Amino acid sequence: QVQLVESGGGLVQAGGSLRLSCAASRRTFSSYAMGWFRQAPGKEREFVGSISKSGRITYYADSVKGRFTISRDNANSVYLQMNSLKPEDTAVYYCSADALRVGAAMGDYWGQGTQVTVSS
Fold first, then answer.
1. DSSP state at residue 104
2. What is the dihedral of CA 109, 94, 54, 17, to 10 degrees?
3. Rounded Cα–Cα distance for residues 38 and 114 (Å)
4. Residue 87 gets which letter from DSSP?
5. What is the average pLDDT score of the chain?
6. 57, 51 in Cβ contact below 8 A?
7. Which of 27-38 are b and which e, b meaning 16 or more Cβ less than 10 Å from the residue's Cβ?
8. If DSSP states are collapsed to H, E and C, what string results for 23-59?
9. Residue 107 burial (10 A CB sphere; 0-12, 13-18, 19+)
């Protein structure tokens, strides 16, 4: 299986920036599309963004488009650069990997999540 470990979460004021990282243990990491999801307390998991195996195609939820950027280093890490953060971005952010799908329907593997809290 693919083991995913997220990092980079924390507390930030509204308007600030944060960069999340996701490292995969599997050597065939480039064979997987990668994505980010988030879940706030009492709410269902929400798609945030994803990136294709090649890194050439990205998808974003409308709520984060223009503020968040997903990227990968073609090695074993995927990143989520979050700018202009809003209090409504507060959630646990999860990294996901999928060998076939990319987008909201992906999710063969999941990380444990990292907490992002945006204060007003």
1. T
2. -170
3. 9
4. G
5. 94
6. yes
7. eebeebbbbbbb
8. EECCCCHHHCEEEEEEECCCCCCEEEEEECCCCCCEE
9. middle
For residue 111, give the amino acid letter: G
From CA 87, how far away is CA 1, in angstroms rounded? Answer: 35
Q: How far is the C-alpha of 65 from the C-alpha of 86, rounded, in Å?
A: 13
CA of residue 59 relative to chain centroid, distance: 11
- Which residue, chain included where needed, has tokens 């990227």? 71
Alpha-carbon distance values, 111 to 3, 25, 45, 120 (Å): 7, 11, 13, 28
User: Is 62 strand, coil or helix?
Assistant: coil
Q: If you ran DSSP here, which 8-state letter would residue 76 be given?
A: S
* Tens of pLDDT, residues 25-84: 877 677 899 999 999 999 999 999 999 998 999 999 999 999 999 999 877 899 999 999
